[in-house]
Amino acid sequence: MRAKSVTLRGVSKSFGEVQAVCPQDLEVRAGEFLTLLGPSGCGKTTILRMIAGLEAVSSGAIFVGDEDVTGHPPNRRDTSIMFQDYALFPHKSVRDNIAYGLKMRGQSEAARSKAAEGWLERISLDGYGKRLPSALSGGQRQRVALARALILEPGVLLLDEPLGALDAGLRRHLQVELRRLHRDVGLTFIAVTHDQEEAMTMSDRIAVMRDGRIEQLGTPAEIYDHPETEFVARFLGRCSVIEGRVVAGVAGGMVQVETAALGPVFATGTAAQGANVRLALRPEALILDHSGPVRARVTDAVFTGNAVRLTLTAADGSGLELDLPRGAPVPATGTEAGLRLPPGAAILLAS
Amino acid sequence: MTGPITTRALTLLFWITAGVIYLPIGVMAVFSFSSARYQILPIPAYTTEWYTRVFTDGQYSAGFLNSILLAAMVSLAATLIGFACAYSLVNARFPGKNAFTLLVLAPLAVPLLLVGIALRIWTTMLGLQPSLPLAGLGQVLYVLPLAVLNLRNRIAQLPKSHEEAAWALGASRLRAIMDVILPACRAALLATFILCFTFAFDEFVIAYFLTNFSVTLPIKIWTTLVTGFDPTINALGTMVFAFSLTLGVTAQWLLMRKDP
């Protein structure tokens, strides 16, 4: 198999006084699609650039497959990178752009041309080979950039905000396309994005980053359903956070937490008895139920397309969010509503 | 906000400035067609005699040829060195880079007379004989800051990712410069060449101090003026002005044109 794993051992990066990436370990499996997700300035792009060899590491070592590439320049690594602005060479034709890597490998004009035509067909741009990149649309340029990076059949493809320069509709479509491409070529993909939906749609695993550190690493479902910190919980979709105290451990990885907002709650996670903890509630976790044990005041109802998002204030003043399915009766603003929380729907956050 | 009065005042200022700069040259151009030996009004008759004389006088054409050759060599060297210098200034990371950049550009502010004298003293100390190639070296020093400034601005505009993409696709540093940076700088390189050419072509002080009257056109004009006024100078001056203006405008146009 062509795909290669990528291993970071204690890799860090400082720019002068600024620590962009704190010493970091990361294991990217061969053939998986891993996304580094985080707000701007969290160090995700710096990690990608260090893997590509465009940025030297301040400490640590980087392996592509079994090979230590820490000191290797970009052209001596089995990686390709696609930039956010695509970085197509504006003076070269689309075909010459795609074939550039083969030219650098010393392949003959004929072989290059043939390979480039093959890729043009594959990205549904046959007949566009002689045009300049400026004559293409944003989506077409993105495909050319992908073809240019993939024609070298690298073990690892690095994608810096691959859909960042495109409009919303096209993005959603291309998230799925990228995922399919990943399956087709069977290479290791490492992407960087600040868009949680994009990360969840495309990736096998997500590394959520904050302030130069990987805060949590896991599959999209793991990270969404079991965020370890409030930062991760809030970054991956909406959630309400309430406070409470652990009163007892329960079998099955749950604890009973006494909260001022919702009374006794069975939350997923483990913590010592008597500990003060914070709980995250996804909008779909809370259920509106007239006979429910908890009451809260409805403060707002917003139509979001596939649901109505209710904002409520709990007895202790905590804000709660709840998604009502379409068609369900919407309680009037200002009225009291009954709530129910299924056991395990609340997530215990690390303090 | 620019009100109508401000706009009008600015327009007036523009025409006054343009008048101050171009009126004397206009006067010279008009007298270059006068049949009189001296600048007198009214102009007795119009003639192209002085233009004919410029072309028939072997000294002028020799000076012209010397100037063209010298300016071409000087600006070629300055453009090439300037490109290397500009690329390094944009890409290198070292402490005091901004101060160093200022240092490169500082010679622009030094009076040319001082540069000329300093170069003469220095070359004499080194035991170098004054000659046209030596003057060329001196002029390279003089126009180099212009070349660096021009090209640095252009290179700094280019997205870094283009070059990085070339590296990632297997290009060496030099190869990436040839394939990515140079094509994007074509217009700027040509403009820089032309700009340096006009400056070197008109340059008098350094050429005067570093040659033994191996005559360039500006030196020829000067010696002619010293020995007594000759209306040929009007004709020559007008032509040199038209030549330089054309080159200068072309250079500016190339610089302002949006590169793909």
Word description of this protein:
- The complex is a heterodimer of chains A (351) and B (260).
- With 351 residues, chain A is of the alpha+beta class.
- Chain A folds into 2 domains: 6-227, Rossmann fold (3-Layer(aba) Sandwich), CATH 3.40.50.300; 238-349, OB fold (Dihydrolipoamide Acetyltransferase, E2P).
- Chain A has helices spanning 44-52, 94-104, 109-122, 138-150, 168-185, 196-202, 220-225, 230-235, and strands at 6-15, 18-28, 33-37, 59-64, 67-68, 79-82, 156-160, 188-193, 205-210, 213-218, 240-250, 254-259, 263-268, 276-281, 287-288, 294-303, 307-314, 319-325, 336-340, 346-349.
- In chain A, the strands form 4 sheets. A 6-stranded mixed beta sheet of chain A has the order 6-7-8-3-9-10, sandwiched between helices. A 5-stranded mixed barrel of chain A has the order 11-12-13-20-14. In chain A, strands 15-19-16-17-18 form a 5-stranded antiparallel beta sheet, with no helix packed on it.
- The longest helix of chain A is centred in the middle third of the chain and has 18 residues, at 168-185.
- The mean pLDDT of chain A is 90.
- Chain B has one domain (59-256): MetI-like (MetI-like fold).
- Chain B has helices spanning 4-31, 49-56, 58-91, 97-105, 112-125, 132-157, 160-168, 173-184, 186-202, 205-210, 217-226, 232-256.
- The model of chain B has no long low-confidence stretch (mean pLDDT 84).
- With 260 residues, chain B is mostly helical.
- Chain B has 12 helices and no strands.
- The radius of gyration of chain B is 22 Å and the shape is globular.
- Chain B is 76% helix and 0% strand.
- Classes of the chains: A alpha+beta (351), B mainly alpha (260).
- The A-B interface holds A 52-54, 73-75, 79-81, 83-85, 87-92, 100-101, 104-105, 132, 134, 148-149, 152 and B 159, 161-162, 164-172, 175, 179-180, 183-184, 260.
Helix/strand layout:
The complex is a heterodimer of chains A (351) and B (260).
Chain A: E1 6-15, E2 18-28, E3 33-37, H1 44-52, E4 59-64, E5 67-68, E6 79-82, H2 94-104, H3 109-122, H4 138-150, E7 156-160, H5 168-185, E8 188-193, H6 196-202, E9 205-210, E10 213-218, H7 220-225, H8 230-235, E11 240-250, E12 254-259, E13 263-268, E14 276-281, E15 287-288, E16 294-303, E17 307-314, E18 319-325, E19 336-340, E20 346-349
Parallel strand pairs in A: 3-8, 3-9, 6-7, 7-8, 13-20
Antiparallel strand pairs in A: 1-2, 1-4, 4-5, 9-10, 11-12, 11-14, 12-13, 14-20, 15-19, 16-17, 16-19, 17-18
Helix pairs in contact in A: 2-3, 2-4
Chain B: H1 4-31, H2 49-56, H3 58-91, H4 97-105, H5 112-125, H6 132-157, H7 160-168, H8 173-184, H9 186-202, H10 205-210, H11 217-226, H12 232-256
